[in-house]
Write a structure and sequence with these properties.
This protein is an alpha+beta fold. It is built from 20 helices and 24 strands. β18 and β19 (492-501) form a beta hairpin. The longest helix has 18 residues, at 509-526. The chain is elongated. The termini are far apart.
Length: 649
């Protein structure tokens, strides 16, 4: 191939090369890449668009005065994109932006929908296409002076991306959002909500008896049932709500802008009623229904994780109460009636499984709720021991008190499984050698104590590996493994808290952590036995680390002066003035007299009871509980003048 170079024609002249970007050049560039160019004089706030063919696509004037407001006032930008535009303009017009960018300039990009030209029709709504806007802003000192930019039509690209995203985020069977997309969408919505004025509800919906239908009628029939379930759920909610399928027969809904609790109840009941039916196939007849667990924003949580956890607890309660119903979560763990709002009024007798699940979900929260609802350290300790035993599949969980005078440990509390053995002396009255066996056991456990990051721990995961002299005691007491943690208060040793198994047992990090955490609670709160001011302050400080993370309005008040000596973070964020020695009714509610229905005066001075009532404060009527905050339960000569108040938000 021969390459022939063009040479100047002596009779003619070469085309003139432009020396800068003339309008003609801009027109040719726009024609080549379908770009619309613009110049924005930021001092006069006027945008000038060029005459390139790309401008034919957009419904924009040649010159746009007062551009910074006309872009959305005249709906040049799609109204729903105004928030994006505002954010972009705030960045551009921020003081000091020129100083932070090299050469006094800034590059920025935004994706917005721009109005495009449509055939003239009287009833035609404006049409908008996605565009990518790239702009260079020049600054005069700190002030933006002018900007030059390009607008590219990316409608096809955006639609293609949306199709891919829709395919990746949708459940193939029902067409609803899948689990990951549901969570992302809900988290995005929650971040935009204002806890002071916005309300929403998270619904966890689960089918009752779906496995039997799937096994009896086949998977194709089961798929049809799930598809119909998704259609009914979606039918009862708005496009702005989030509806997704997160598991086999489990669905999730974020009900936004809930007007009232009654409307929420009505909507849940409508879905429950719409789902209840009997499926038939020949002689086979199987009932079908759904159960719903509900949690509320912000009362039960402000994050997806908290709302999901509480909705799951409410769903569990709905299942346990007989299914085919909905339950709204309520933050109480002592009994089924208090654990959730049960609309049909059922009062289940056995709530052990619910309590165990609540304990495992959040051990600290459970223990503190149990303590303030019973005001009984003994009941709290005894119930917690059984929870630990069942959670970690142990055979004995126990607390021993330490006697410094005799240097001995004596059992104070214990929980024993059917495979374990009680170490209470009364259980071994007929065995004269038991005291000696008990001493050998104690001696060997004491020999294993070592300082660790989780406290002073005595740990052995297989007692067969211990010294031969300990084997008879281990065999007699059915002790295959143990882990004990010292209980201390300052420099004082109060006793030890232990996990024991009848067989060799590998103690996990979670078990050792919980062993240590509960030992700290025992030493500082549950077994503390001092009535001086230092003990009171230590007790309140320990409470505050836990109570600050709770959503309820919690405070401790002096019953004589009605002055709060502590209130949790939820209250601190709600009140403007949190300083000064003023009665709670004046500090919190701007009243001159105690609140109507205040339970403080009705509490006995040394009782363990708690009073539940309704009070009107923080602008509404809500449920309140009060109990004595007793420093030393063994001293009847001390007037317990502190009251713990817990109010639902």
């Amino acid at each position: 191939m021969q390459i022939v170079k063009d040479t100047p024609d002596t009779k003619g002249e070469l085309p003139t090369v432009p020396k800068d970007f003339t309008p003609d050049v801009l027109q040719q560039l726009g024609e080549l890449d379908r770009l619309l160019y613009f110049h924005w004089n930021l001092q006069t706030d006027v945008i000038t668009f060029n005459k390139a063919p790309a401008s034919i696509e957009y419904d924009v004037p040649d010159i746009l005065p007062r551009a910074s407001t006309a872009l959305w006032d005249d709906e040049v930008i799609y109204p729903a994109d105004c928030a994006r535009l505002h954010t972009w303009l705030r960045v551009i017009f921020s003081k000091g932006m020129g100083k932070r960018h090299a050469n006094g300039m800034q590059r920025s990009t935004a994706r917005l929908r721009l109005r495009v030209k449509t055939p003239p029709k009287d009833d035609a709504a404006p049409r908008y296409n996605w565009t990518e806007i790239r702009m260079i802003t020049y600054f005069n000192g700190w002030e933006p002076a002018e900007a030059f930019g390009t607008i590219r039509n990316i409608q096809s690209l955006k639609l293609w991306q949306e199709r891919l995203e829709r395919k990746a985020s949708r459940d193939t069977l029902t067409g609803l959002l899948n689990k990951g997309a549901s969570q992302r969408r809900i988290e995005e919505y929650l971040r935009a909500l204002n806890p002071r004025k916005d309300h929403a509800a998270l619904l966890l919906i689960d089918a009752d008896g779906f496995k039997e239908i799937n096994d009896t009628f086949g998977h194709l029939f089961g798929d049809a049932v799930l598809t119909n379930m998704g259609m009914i759920i979606e039918k009862h909610f708005r496009q702005s709500d989030v509806v997704g399928r997160i598991g086999g027969d489990e669905f999730l809904v974020l009900f936004r802008n809930v007007p009232s609790l009654q409307i929420l109840r009505d909507r849940c009941q409508q879905i429950v009623s719409a789902m209840a039916k009997t499926y038939e196939n020949g002689e086979d007849r199987l009932p079908f229904s759904i159960s719903i667990g509900v949690s509320l924003f912000p009362a039960h949580g402000k994050t997806y994780t908290d709302l999901f956890r509480h909705a799951d607890k409410a769903l569990y309660e709905a299942k346990r109460c007989g299914k085919n119903q909905f339950v709204v979560y309520r933050p109480s763990l002592l009994n089924a009636e208090g654990s959730a709002e049960v609309p049909n009024g059922r009062d289940p007798q056995n709530d052990a499984e619910l309590q165990q699940k609540a304990f495992e979900d959040n051990m600290l929260e459970f223990i503190f709720r149990l303590l303030y609802e019973t005001n009984s350290p003994e009941a709290t300790i005894q119930m917690s021991l059984g929870m630990f035993g069942k959670q970690f599949k142990l055979d004995r969980v126990a607390i021993d008190r330490y006697d410094a005078m005799n240097n001995t440990y004596t059992n104070a509390y214990e929980w024993v499984s059917p495979n374990g053995m009680s170490l209470r002396p009364e259980a071994h009255e007929k065995d004269p050698d038991f005291p000696n066996i008990l001493r050998q056991r104690g001696k060997q456990i004491a020999a294993q104590y070592r300082p660790t990051p989780y406290g002073v721990i005595s740990r052995c995961e297989d007692t067969r590996l211990l010294a031969p002299e300990f084997q008879p005691a281990a065999g007699f007491l059915r002790l295959g493994a143990f882990a004990h943690c010292l209980i201390t208060h300052g420099t004082e040793t109060l006793g030890c808290f232990g996990f024991e198994s009848a067989r060799p047992h590998t103690f996990t990090t979670d078990e050792i952590k919980d062993l240590n955490i509960f030992s700290v609670l025992l030493g500082n709160i549950l077994m503390a036995n001092r009535s001086d001011a230092a003990a009171m302050q230590a007790k309140i400080k320990m409470f505050s680390t836990i109570l600050d993370d709770m959503q309820e309005l919690i405070y401790i008040v002096d019953r004589r002066a009605m002055e709060p000596i502590y209130y949790n973070r939820t209250i601190r964020q709600a009140i403007v003035n949190g300083e000064g020695h003023e009665p709670c009714y004046k500090l919190f509610h701007n009243r001159q007299k105690p609140c109507k229905g205040c339970p403080v005066r009705d509490l006995s001075k040394n009782g363990n009871e708690y009073i539940q009532c309704e009070v009107h404060n923080w602008g509404k009527t809500s449920l309140c509980r009060a109990c004595n905050f007793i420093i030393d339960k063994d001293r009847t000569d001390v007037d317990p003048h502190l009251v713990l108040m817990v109010q639902e938000p």
